[in-house]
């Protein structure tokens, strides 16, 4: 089975859920990780277009800030085995895909202007969560990680495919160090196509 995974920083999901589902339908996306939903609390709901049905899992906080979510197309949504809502910046779902168990994260890292302490707390919590997942399970991360990994691999040849863009910044270093420490690779740095470079995956 071919799984089409996407990710999208929506700015705000309020009043846009149908618009986004129609876009997912056009692009034939099976699962889409959302960031900056700005929805409070957490929950599950169904959003249907004329042709497709999607199930949305989301997690927020008491105020309408941050927030993450994951759209899953039916009938694939029936294969979701578990949901883990860690905080308003990352969550995961576990699903069965044929004979494989897969963990899909939606993650929203802190922006460049935030304090180093807050950034460290985010990446430490993310790393701790990854460490609890058995090595036998495939991990995919779709997210807005708010960093530029640049177009050079430097000392990260094992995780960076050499087709990034621009200059690497400090947040990009954090992303690469995180990927290296957990055996991930940045999928979209492995192609020269002019497309968004956003997803990281377990290297196994």
UniProtKB/TrEMBL annotation:
InterPro entries given in the database record: Endo/exonu/phosph_ase_sf, Endo/exonuclease/phosphatase, Swc5/CFDP1/2
Domain Endonuclease/exonuclease/phosphatase positions: 6-148
Stored CDD domains: L1-EN (cd09076)
Species this chain originates from: Helobdella robusta (Californian leech)
Highest taxon listed in the record's lineage: Eukaryota
MF terms in GO: catalytic activity
Gene3D superfamilies: Endonuclease/exonuclease/phosphatase
Membrane-crossing residue ranges in chain numbering: none
SUPFAM superfamilies from the UniProt entry: DNase I-like
Protein name per UniProt: Endonuclease/exonuclease/phosphatase domain-containing protein
Alphabetized Pfam families for the sequence: Exo_endo_phos
